[in-house]
Amino acid sequence: MTIYNVSIPDNKDSFFREFLELIGAKYEKKQDTFELSDEQKKILDNQDDFALSDYEDNDSFVAELKKEYGI
């Protein structure tokens, strides 16, 4: 069996599905676009209050963990 990963324009979707059914192909439709809910958008908008200086540098954090756990 051969497996393909293809992207089909929205206006050709029904034709493509009919073609797949005609040739007896097994397929799974995956939608790669999504929309955030209003609640999720509000959460992201509220994150503007954080300053980059509030966050620890990744390298120093990893070094601290290694020191603490003797890795």
Automatic annotation (TrEMBL):
Protein name: Uncharacterized protein
UniProt lineage: Bacteria, Pseudomonadati, Bacteroidota, Flavobacteriia, Flavobacteriales
Organism: Epilithonimonas arachidiradicis
